[in-house]
Design a protein that fits this description.
The protein is α/β, with parallel strands linked by helices and 594 residues long. Helix content is 35%, strand content 18%. The strands form 4 sheets. It has an 8-stranded parallel sheet with strand order 1-12-9-8-5-4-3-2. Strands 13, 14, 15, 16, 17, 18, 19 and 20 form an 8-stranded mixed sheet that branches. The protein has a two-stranded antiparallel sheet with strand order 6-7.
Length: 594
């Protein structure tokens, strides 16, 4: 057995101690950047583990990398080795989810798993990565990955313990990644990491729109140059590089060239190629190795000095990118500026794109028999607005229909009462789903109704529907109220509607129609632009007035902030604040007037 093979096997089984390394891997990285050569990061160890060793359904997906270090370290080493063979310069430890376990002595990551301590996991992660490098006789740098959950007041103490874990066998650098907001605690967190004596790289989930989510949703507000000024401060603190990650590839353009105006730091990008959905891994199109390599080339042309991949980026894509990037000079190209809500001129006058073409009052109403179970959202003026239109027009007859965010099932029941062939209802709350099915039975339409609990973001349509109705939650929220979580708060109040629009090409038949309720406090312009970009046209078929209740009153300051920065508005009548709820009819371009 060769010395390197023996070292690899010992590291996998967690029995190695620190082993001197020939040369200094981080010095090699610094030299590449200084001599205008691109540094190639690895892809996503966590998602690649699903491909190599299968998933752990009882374990949160972001925890599987840590779990694999305890339960299947040989699989982790195999993934690292594949990225090393692909030609990357830096591999990241499978510890992204470690902050979830921080401070939990002898934590069990899933039922039946053996107890592990997070400090042992940290040491093991470095050993396994070193073994993968030795296996390939490579001098790649090992980056210890830790996510933004450590950015909290107690995180500084935890980082001090982490430094102790690295005393005998430190990584080559620390990668603090997938940060979002720059909080008051962020600088202290970065400073504590730098006190370990190791180089520190930091990465944010950011694009030119602001804070960006894995689905491409934008949940940070307009910040002007504040993030650029933060980049300058990070440089003054002495960090080694600033990157953006965990965003879709089409949100990368413009970020590097914009940051270059503020800092001389080494800049890098490593976006996702999809996201984990209810139907498994999803991508917004088939991104081949060649496609990813061309994307990498474009980021290099814009000025990226460090390029790699996040979730969904495998060794094949990294290998193709490494080949294309070899010998390429760093560029200075500036992409066209992306749309941003700050660019919109406030318009508090009447909507000009949508118009109302019918308004009728009917009395008495044949209202369905609806019970609202405890904990389920009772129908609001927005839901009543859609119901009234469905009732007046007899919409849904003989069609396959979808009710998104069904709540108590008012719209589902009415569509079935109108003679729909079938209505499928989805809601994130299982209690609401059960309530919908109960109300379908109460109204004698249960034979034409199905329902399921589904989170709209990872949800994948099983078929295309003739008719879609949606009355979704719309509430602007100050993101600084956010506690650290993967599900961000919604600055503009429109994330659910924006994501539904992205799903329409998969969920709505080519000759189908969608009816979406939208509040005036999230604006018209962005909705119209997104619909048109996906090939749809829209018109207002009805509207109603929606007085602020207590929840809206609590968020009034944020609502006013959004109205100042966009075309959103509401009405002020004496002491009362009133929104306008619009019912929008959405059809394919060329299908209107059918």
């Amino acid at each position: 057995m060769g010395k390197e093979t023996e070292l690899a096997e010992l590291a996998v089984n967690g029995r190695t101690t620190a082993t001197p390394r020939a040369g200094d891997p981080y010095a090699r990285i610094a030299e590449k950047i200084a001599t205008d050569r691109c540094v190639v990061l690895d892809g996503a160890t966590g998602t690649e583990l699903f491909e190599v060793g299968g998933g752990r359904p009882e374990l949160d997906d972001h925890m599987w990398g840590i779990g694999a270090l305890a339960e299947a370290p040989e699989e982790v080493q195999r993934v690292h080795a594949r990225y090393v063979a692909a030609g990357c310069d830096v591999i990241s430890t499978a510890t992204w989810g470690l902050p979830t376990a921080l401070g939990q002595d002898n934590a069990r990551l899933w039922e039946g798993g053996r107890p592990i301590h997070w400090m042992d996991t940290a040491r093991s992660a470095v050993r396994v990565a070193r073994a993968a490098s030795a296996e390939r006789d490579s001098e790649v740098a090992v980056a210890f990955s830790i996510n933004g959950d450590v950015d909290k007041p107690e995180g500084v103490e935890t980082i001090g313990l982490l430094a102790r874990a690295f005393e005998s066998d430190p990584p080559d650098l620390i990668l603090l990644e997938t940060l979002s907001l720059v909080r008051g605690s962020t600088y202290a967190t970065v400073e504590a990491l730098m006190e370990t004596g190791l180089p520190v790289w930091i990465s944010f989930r950011r694009c030119r729109h602001g804070v960006c989510g894995v689905y491409g949703e934008h949940w940070g507000g307009p910040e002007g140059d504040s993030f650029g000024r933060a980049a300058r401060r990070f440089e003054e603190m002495g960090i080694g590089a600033l990157l953006v990650n965990c965003i879709p590839p089409d949100h990368v353009p413009g970020m590097v060239s914009w940051l270059r105006d503020f800092t001389d730091l080494a800049l890098g990008v490593y976006p996702n190629l999809g996201y984990l959905s209810a139907a498994g891994w999803r991508t917004d199109g088939d991104v081949s190795e060649r496609d990813f390599a061309e994307l990498a080339r474009s980021w290099r042309e814009e000025g990226a000095q460090i390029i790699g991949g996040c979730c969904g980026v495998g060794p094949e894509q990294i290998g193709a990118a490494a080949e294309v990037l070899a010998g390429t000079p760093v560029g200075h190209r500036r992409p066209a500026e992306p749309w941003h809500p700050e660019d919109a001129e406030p318009d508090h006058g009447p909507a000009t794109h949508w118009h109302n073409d019918r308004a009728r009052e009917l009395f008495p109403l044949e209202f369905p028999d609806i019970a609202v179970d405890e904990g389920v959202f009772a129908p609001t003026q927005g839901s009543f607005l859609i119901w009234q239109y469905l009732f007046e027009q007899g919409i849904g007859a003989h069609q396959r229909c979808l009710d998104v965010g069904c709540g108590s099932g008012l719209l589902t029941v009415q569509l079935a009462r109108n003679g729909a062939g079938h209505v499928h209802a989805i809601d994130i709350d299982q209690v609401a789903v059960d309530n919908t099915l109960t109300n379908a039975f109460r109204n004698g339409v249960a034979d034409r109704v199905s329902a399921a609990a589904a989170d709209l973001y990872p949800w994948v349509p099983e078929e295309r529907y003739d008719l879609i109705v949606a009355s979704l939650y719309q509430m602007p929220v100050d993101p600084f109220e956010q506690v650290t979580t993967h599900r961000p708060l919604d600055f503009w109040g429109r994330n659910l509607i924006d994501h539904l629009i992205k799903l329409l090409p998969e969920a709505l038949a080519d000759d189908g129609t969608a009816y979406i309720m939208q509040l005036s406090i999230i604006g018209e312009r962005r909705t119209v632009e997104q619909l048109e970009a996906h090939g749809y046209t829209s018109r207002v078929v009805s509207f109603a007035f929606f007085e602020f209740h207590d929840l809206f009153k609590e968020k009034k300051e944020q609502i006013l902030r959004v109205e100042e920065q966009s075309d959103a508005y509401h009405l002020r009548l004496g002491d009362h604040d009133v929104m306008v709820a619009y019912l929008i009819e959405v059809t394919r371009k060329g299908e209107e007037g059918r």
